[in-house]
Amino acid sequence: MSNIGSYDNRLHGFSWKIAEQELGYIPGDTINIGWYCSDRICQLGKADKTALIWEGHDENSTRTYSFNDIRILSNTIGAFLRNLGIHDGDRVCLFMDKIPELYIGLLGILKIGAVVQPLFSAFGDESLFVRLENAGTRAIITTRQHAPKIQKILATLPDLQYIILVDDNGTKALKAKEIAFSLDRAIPVEHLEVFPTKAESHSLLHYTSGTTGQPKGVKHVHYSLISQYLTAKWALDLQEDDLYWCTADPGWVTGTSYGIIGPWSLGITQCVKDAGFSAETWYRFIEKHKISMWYSAPTAIRSLMKAGDDLVKRFDLSSLRHLASVGEPLNAEAVLWSEKVIGKPFHDTYWQTETGSIMISNFPGMKIKPGSMGKVFPGLTAALLDPDTFEIITEVNKPGLIAFQFDWPARLRTYWKNEETFLKKFRNGWYLTGDRSTIDQDGYFWFIGRDDDVINTAGHLVSPFEVESALLEHEAVAESAVVAKPDEVNMEVVKAFITLKPGFVASDELELEIMNFIRKKLSPLAMPQEIEYMDTLPKTRSGKIMRRVLHAKEWGEETGDLSTLEND
Amino acid sequence: MPDSNEMKKTILQYVINEYAEEDSDLTYDTPLISGGLVDSFSMVSLKRFLELKYKISIPDERATPEAFDNVTKIANLVLEFL
């Protein structure tokens, strides 16, 4: 029996008070995500229940933590930060691989009222700089492996006071602003005075990319717990005895909302595998730990499909009870494949960094229409708006902009230091997601695409502007334009079109050099997988590069009106 | 035909220069993909390097995470296509 039961019944009389009451939260009281994910679970009598089963690359490197362990260890990290002078509202970045300190550190930072700024550990120094500088980050918790990237930009970050190394073994001298902290060796803190954060207290600051401008800091608050708790319970159907695996990295919002907050606020045991992707490794992990609920991404699912059906048969995956997917639309083929080969279909879920929690989903027990995003989560009011008039579309199957009434608990509160851009997300009282879809006669949403030029590669948004700007920093590049190129596994990948400065000659070697330049400066996701040399880029008469002409060429689409195209 | 050991040395040096931090202690058998050092996106640039360096073309279906998981395996793959 699923937690949500009948979806249709849940629509009637829905209120977020359901979650508030289950969590024992009274509006106006203090609410601290870190406390709810650890201390409260212990108070419910589950102190000895396993919270985290962590496994590194080596399968014998498994570590297990109870809820009492994460309560004490998060206290310990929180106390350490507090003793350094980190106080409520300060931004503390988590910049490491998926090690226990990342998961537990998030709770510790929240417990002292500071703001968690999770960043993907593969970010290069320029990507790192942009985000740390914008946030005015005060401390960054990282490992020896990633510290050099921070040292490279340290002189340009006057707000950054502490680089906290969680894996320092004392064999190398600490560099500027570095300080060692070991969760294993620190004296455990049994009791920490949790900062009395309120519903609107700032909790997390995730960064997301747009078409233009630099990445935007998405401000979330402690009240987002209400949405994350209930959506984890109803959409992901997390149940008391589940062993849950969310494959997302906590550098991204899925990894925090549903890789930490949602499951732990429910007192669910979760498993984490800190290793690169390998189909065999993943199946073995599921079999070994008897994972029952698996939340993954379409890119990973397509990679699993590519690895072949025979591989699946070598493993016992019968423990799997419910599967869900996030990040980009899940194609019908993947849903049908998982049902046939794994025995259970993946349930697509749709939401964004800005929404903080699942908005549209295929719910357990509800008929899945392969390829559809599903239906709106109870309590949310969604519509499709006409892209020209922003009026509500009432016709079935007519494309429009996905929009919501801006009233759910986990909604962003603003873009950090960028209120102007935040306000542009609203039209006629509706919050615009930037995505387009249709709605069929049964209320199922069908994704069409982005409403802007943002590239969605492997479920992560990459800004063409950011990549174009970085390309221009290469000595050989005169002009650049970046678009999405279709990809069988990743849905889209980055493709760059460039013109060269005098004295530089187009070559495969130069293409590789520029690819690596971007990979190291921004991230592997942002690296153009192909660079095409051009004599000139298509521009309007006013000199603006027409990305859509290049995009249409890549996708085999009509280029549209070219009357403004500059003549050669 | 390049010597296999020379090839492994060249590939290892490239991996260290491009994907690892300073003074890392990678060996020919260090897991690169499953160890999280080289992700699937970075694999594209590694494949491109191998194709340019050794003037080969590696079919996409052979450029798998398993085939690229350490320097020894990568060298074996390259030798197949020389």
Give a concise summary:
The complex is a heterodimer of chains A (568) and B (82). With 568 residues, chain A is an alpha/beta fold.
Query: What is the beta-strand fraction of chain A?
Result: 15-25%
> With helices defined by DSSP (H or I, 4 residues minimum), what is the helix count of chain A?
18
Number of separate strands of chain B: 0
- Helix coverage percent of residues of chain B? 40-55%
Whole-number total of structural domains of chain A: 2
What coarse outline of chain A follows from CA principal-axis ratios? globular
Oligomeric state of shown chains: heterodimer
**Rg of chain A to the nearest angstrom?**
23 Å
Order of strands, widest sheet of chain A = 2-1-11-10-12-13-14-15-16
Low-confidence segments of chain B, given as residue ranges, are: none
Largest sheet of chain A: 9 strands, mixed
Radius of gyration of chain B equals 12 Å
CATH architecture of the largest domain in chain A: 3-Layer(aba) Sandwich
CATH superfamily descriptor of the largest domain in chain A: ANL, N-terminal domain
The termini of chain B sit apart by: 8 Å
Structural class of chain A: alpha/beta
- Our count of helices of chain B gives 3
CATH architecture of chain B: Orthogonal Bundle
Largest interface: A-B, 31 and 24 residues
Could you please say which CATH topology of the largest domain in chain A applies here? Rossmann fold
- Could you give a short account of the major beta sheet of chain B? none
